[in-house]
Amino acid sequence: MAVGPATLPTFEPISGFRLGTASAGIKTPGRLDLVVMELSETASVAGVFTRNAFCAAPVTLSKKHLAAGQPRYLLTNTGNANAGTGAEGMADASGCCAKLAELVGMKPEQVLPFSTGVIGEKLPVERIYAALPAAVEALSENGWEDAASGILTTDTRPKGASCSLELNGQAVCISGISKGAGMIRPNMATMLAYVATDAKVEQADLQALLSEVAERTFNRVTIDGDTSTNDSCMLVATGASGVACAPGHPEWDQFAEAVESVLRELAQAIVRDGEGATKFVSIEVNGALDSAEALKVAYAIAHSPLVKTALFASDPNWGRILAAVGYAGVEQLDLEALKIFLGDVCIVENGGRAADYTEEQGQAVMNQEDILIRVELARGEVSETVWTTDLSKDYVTINADYRS
Amino acid sequence: MAVGPATLPTFEPISGFRLGTASAGIKTPGRLDLVVMELSETASVAGVFTRNAFCAAPVTLSKKHLAAGQPRYLLTNTGNANAGTGAEGMADASGCCAKLAELVGMKPEQVLPFSTGVIGEKLPVERIYAALPAAVEALSENGWEDAASGILTTDTRPKGASCSLELNGQAVCISGISKGAGMIRPNMATMLAYVATDAKVEQADLQALLSEVAERTFNRVTIDGDTSTNDSCMLVATGASGVACAPGHPEWDQFAEAVESVLRELAQAIVRDGEGATKFVSIEVNGALDSAEALKVAYAIAHSPLVKTALFASDPNWGRILAAVGYAGVEQLDLEALKIFLGDVCIVENGGRAADYTEEQGQAVMNQEDILIRVELARGEVSETVWTTDLSKDYVTINADYRS
Predict the structure, then answer these.
(1) What residues of A act catalytically?
(2) What are the boundaries of each domain within chain A?
(3) What is the pLDDT of residues A119-174, one digit of tens each?
(4) ipTM for the complex shown
(5) DSSP of A272-288, one letter per residue?
(6) A263 vs A235: CA distance, rounded Å
(7) Residue B102 annotated as binding?
(8) Any binding-site annotation on B404?
(9) Span A44-89, pLDDT tens digits
(10) Which CATH superfamily is domain A17-272 in?
(11) Catalytic center at which residues (chains A, B) (predicted)?
(12) What is the largest CA-CA distance in chain B?
């Protein structure tokens, strides 16, 4: 199941950024599961990674290689996360970097490795080595669609976003892909996302932009509250358009907003394809004293199994939302001033059910696929929004019946 | 579904504590749903209550009446939580206290009200008023079994614990009942539990004992992470045995341990009857620097939908446990020193799968109904244990198909 239309956008090719996808048979023979991305020599690269203490070997290595200077290749496999694999996992990730580097005449530290799939099994490196030449052979600026498929795990559909904009009269393009459907509560980044632009941006500016934007996009989605061992989000600026962007330039805000809209679309696409998802739920908390308490309330609702099963049932069981707000841990809540809305319908005010509320009004909102839960804390000026899904029987089936 | 045998113990009657149960037809015609408990004039009473900010009207009123001095009656209805009901809910709870007080010739503030059931619907007070005489009529020291049924909601079976012990050559009895199957992550107490003893204990000592013991029993169980609006746990000491117990007395520790064992049994019974439960899971975290970080790790595992669905599937998917430990938020975890065990089987050491581990070993543990997950943090000396259940298809069915 998934929420909303499954169509991929038409990807704007990004000059200086090529993608090649192949089938290595890592978990399932014949499926696309190996993606190589090639960056031009002039490209700036920024990355954000999981904060899970048990981060996977490829995450550790990617951070190290990114810090080392000039990455030229991103190498992604699906079907195996190479996480919880200890020293052997680190050797395997290094081996993959070395093998690709040898093929393309680079140094191993110019390759950033990424893995996604089952945790705790040995990476089948020989299959990856064997398929690398085909992936390199396939490199093309038009390789986005195949790559969008080649990074998927339990996802039911590929995810992409693309846009072009004019900065100071010159065209700049941004394209990106993402994957992820379970173990999704990113902390600093989500599962896997790759975004490229042909704008010219200094590495430090690019990293600052990505860190800030990821916080408002990928770090605001949750499916099951489980922060993965492998989350990585990469932003590449090839500079091939010749259009320079930097903070302080008049066009920077426009560029930053375009990047954010692409990341937001990719992040929301992950929620819409959440494991077993039948609803796309936005939880907006306004009137908080600070961001932390707004997020406490939003995540209490987003992670409540009782709220999530009510959403699955399209049941306007507002008492469960009220209970979640109540246990979110915000001190000295003013229950009389607090209001809760389902869509535009006020469900809670004056410490209880809103006087005008009728079950029919609540039912009408719950019957929709896209649902907004809005909490007005009436304590301050800060707002936060997170996006999540319902908890369906299929979620349990997917995670109980298959080893993922 | 539920885990383990469904038998109630033989309840030791507690002299000075009588229970009467009746059917008020609050939600389901004919079922036992109204319980009156009568305390002797000499009884001491202690209580712990939910910390949910949206606590229900009866919780607010019980706290007030308990503080006022000498409670003589506990009045419980199931089928309606009288929570999220605003000023009207408070008036309804007060009305029930007044009605019972009138019947038995007491003051309204000598009655403590408790409600459990659906949130946000008006309490049908007329039905309760009509059934009160029958409940008072039924009062008996042998009324434990009926009362154990009369407080249930989505529970599949009644829960009780009882013991007698000799203190300084004299007999003392402790009996108790509890209920709760969903919206269970008590914070200060769980859903509803009532424990009585004929020991003689000063109110302040009794309250201190209950607060301490509830922290290690009811506050260590979680089914779905949802802290209810109505959690209440009451401990009554009638003093009818004539055996005085106080901190500092040689027999106090023995008494306190007996009280704790009754509360632990009642708390664990709630987990064993968790909504859709097929497993009873103990999560033991050792070697923590402090209690807070031990609990962070334990609850990260206990609340992970991915760990819980793997438990439901009896799948030794240890990578999900490792991931939960990794995102629990403990700073500077030493991944090399950390170990994770399933039962007696070491599954994680040296940052990855234990060298000796085989899938068969993990499967043998997961096939059991009672499962121990043990994490050795190797940072300090503090241990904590929490108890939880799996996440089954039935959990979703129960909470999606019925308004509870």
Answers:
(1) 190
(2) 17-272, 280-388
(3) 888 999 999 999 999 999 999 999 999 999 999 888 888 999 999 998 888 899 99
(4) 0.76
(5) HT-TT---EEEEEEEEE
(6) 10
(7) no
(8) yes
(9) 999 888 878 788 899 999 999 999 988 999 999 999 999 888 899 9
(10) L-amino peptidase D-ALA esterase/amidase (3.60.70.12)
(11) 190
(12) 71
